[in-house]
Structure formats: C-alpha cells, structure tokens
UniProtKB/TrEMBL annotation:
Residues 9-239 form the ATP-grasp domain. The gene is sucC. SUPFAM superfamilies: Glutathione synthetase ATP-binding domain-like, Succinyl-CoA synthetase domains. Its EC number is 6.2.1.5. The keyword Ligase applies. Substrate binds at N274, G331, I332, M333. Belongs to the succinate/malate CoA ligase beta subunit family. Binds 1 Mg(2+) ion per subunit. It comes from the Bacteria. PROSITE patterns: ATP_GRASP (PS50975). ATP binds at K46, G53, R54, G55, E109, A112, E117. Pathway: Carbohydrate metabolism; tricarboxylic acid cycle; succinate from succinyl-CoA (ligase route): step 1/1. This is Succinate--CoA ligase [ADP-forming] subunit beta. Succinyl-CoA synthetase functions in the citric acid cycle (TCA), coupling the hydrolysis of succinyl-CoA to the synthesis of either ATP or GTP and thus represents the only step of substrate-level phosphorylation in the TCA. The beta subunit provides nucleotide specificity of the enzyme and binds the substrate succinate, while the binding sites for coenzyme A and phosphate are found in the alpha subunit.
Amino acid sequence: MNIHEYQAKSLLRSYGAPVSDGRVVLRAEEAKTAAGELDGPVWVVKAQIHAGGRGKGTFKEPEAGSAGGVRIAKSVSEAAEEAKHMLGRTLVTKQTGPAGKQVNRVYIEDGAGIDKEFYLALLVDRGTSRISFVCSTEGGMDIEEVAESTPEKILSFSVDPATGYQAFHGRRIAFMLELTGGAVKQCVKLMGTLYKMFLEKDMEMLEINPLILTTGGDLKCLDAKMGFDSNAVYRHADIAELRDVTEEDPKELEASKYDLNYIALDGEIGCMVNGAGLAMATMDIIKLYGSEPANFLDVGGGATKDKVTEAFKIITSDPQVKGILVNIFGGIMRCDVIAEGVVAAVKEVGLKVPLVVRLEGTNVEKGKDIINNSDVDVIAADNLKDGAEKIVKAVKG
Ligand code: ADP
Ligand code: MG
C-alpha cells in the first residue's frame, strides 16, 4: 500500500525527521489560506499523486504539455494560483504511464534553500533477507539511470537484524555523501530514525529523493515515498487510514472487496486460475505462445460461485481483454463451482470475446456438463498447452 508525499512527511515529522512545514489542499478555495499559514518567502506547490517524476511531468488538456507537478511560487497568491491550476487536472509522469493520474490534492510547503541533493532509500532486500540502505550523491535523479550509467555513485548495504541499526551505518552514508561537521551527526541520527520507522510501520520501501543539504548546512527530507506491506497494514490503524482508494486500479479495488488475488497487467488475455503457482505458469505459457496476460488472478482454494462470478465480471470489464482463458486444476476448488460461476457471469454480463476453458481434477465431468448444457460459447481445452495455444490463436486469428 502506498501513501501520498504529504502523509509520508507527516509521519516523518512525528518521528522527528526534518521536513518542511506544509499544508495539504483539496479544494482551490482553501489554497490561499493554506499558503498564508506558511512562512515563505518561497512556496513550493506539489501535486499529490501516487507516482514520482512529478517535477518533470506534464499536464494534459487544457493547455496540454504545460509543465510541472512541482512549481515554485514567490507569493501567497501565486501559490494559490498554482494550486488552482493543478487541482482536477491529469498529470503525466514517467511513472504514471501515458494515461496519467488526476490530481485531487496538492501540497503547499515552504521552499528550501538547496545546496546539494542526494538519493536515499530503505528497502526490503530479498537477496539478503534484510533491510538495505541505498544512497547516492546523485539526488533528484532517476536512480535506475544512475545505476546504469554511474554505478560507482551508489552505495548500498544491508543491516544485520541481530545488531540493528548502528551509528557506523549512518557514518558510512555520511562519508559517501561527503557530509561534514554537524551534518554528519544529523545523518547518523536521521538514518537511525528512518530505520526505526521502517521496522515499526512494516514498510516495504522508503525513498527520500531528494534528501538535501540546505544552504544552512542541515539535512532535510524534501520528497518522501513510502510503501507498506499490505499484509501487515491490519496491525497499523494509523497507516490504514491513509489509504487513498482513488489512486488504486478500480479493478483491483473491486477484486479486493471479494478477497480475490488480482493484479491488473498490460496484456490482452484475461486469466482465471486457481492457485498462485498455476496462475504464474499460465501467464508464462501465454507469453510463450506469443501473447500477453491482461491480469494475474488466483481465485483461491475455497472460492464460491459468487466469488467466481465477480472475478469473471472484473475480467470482462477490462476493455483491454481480447480473450479469456479459464484454467482450473480442481483440488479443494471444485470444477463444477467454477463452471457455475462462469455460466452465471456470462448470463449477467454477456461474452464479447473468445473464451477457452480448461478444467481438470475434482468434479471435472460435472463441470464440463454444466458448461456444455449452458448456451455459453466455449472453446474446450484438454490441457494447459492446448488451452494457451487455443486462446492465443482465437485472439490473434
Ligand atoms: P518528484 O520526485 O515527483 O519530481 P520532488 O518532491 O522530488 O518530486 O520534487 C522535484 C524537485 O523539486 C526536487 O528535486 C527539488 O529540486 C524541488 N523541490 C521539491 N520540494 C521543494 C521544496 N520544498 N523546496 C525547494 N525545492 C523543492
Ligand atoms: Mg522526488
């Protein structure tokens, strides 16, 4: 689960990490008052969307191409104008994809005097099964780009959970960033705070890009991106409250209501599968036969007819879907339940694309009977290979 920059900064503030003072604004009328509560003399107006690259992003119509989801204002009224200009418009950045994201909230904060910009992140490193720090002198930039062209400018190390964070970890970062004097001390303290937050709040990712050295020689978190382990959010009521469902894929949101493991993808073949492993294999074989999956969907073991019906409806609601492959290996999940769900869903929403069904396992004959005796137009498949070949052929012609 991701949160907005202003929410992340409020969390940082509550742990005593250095951030600028700021106000979130949801309606243009509130912008002037909000900006007026800040000191200035420079205000920064920042579009709040769950994507980075806002500074270099561009807005869509009207005035397509007008630049910047991060704008500097020299007066309160200018800040209010900028906020008004952003609210309700669609911002396209490198991370949003071409469709962009609608800006429903803006954050107005005090402008900082910047001497240097750094990159800093904490993340769960699957390689070492530990939490890793990643830092670089090249702040405000795409870290993937830095990793590609100048990998020597990135320092990364993991923290042994037995000892936890130690001052030497912080000093390593400080020296990499060529900090001196008081900033070294601030760095050691800040890194400890971030590590503590990361653990206590069950984060998956915490990115401060840029972390800055101000003209006054102090460290400050100028941007903040936080991702939390969705499976642990139930332990943190304060974090759960920060969820902004308008930032999520509506299909994924619908699926989560029915407790379906659904992830929207870019391809054209909708998949309904039971079991995460079989779902992965199904996606692989679709690719092998020259197409791309439109989603990952594991309906789980004990799915009911209603759950299957909802799952099917979510798949068919995706205009990208040009064909559907149902691939069920009935164990705990029974093939007749799947068949009933598919037939019920088709009855309710219709079927505008080819449908290949492969059923195997518990109650397979019963399942096939249900489908054969319905008037649903199905292409039957005998095994996974056969099913994948048939759906790709039906879609590609
Ligand atoms: P994004 O990563 O989405 O582009 P950032 O918050 O990193 O957004 O902002 C982009 C750039 O704008 C920063 O690298 C920094 O140079 C500048 N910036 C952001 N916030 C402030 C601020 N409060 N004061 C001064 N400059 C800022
Ligand atoms: Mg940034």
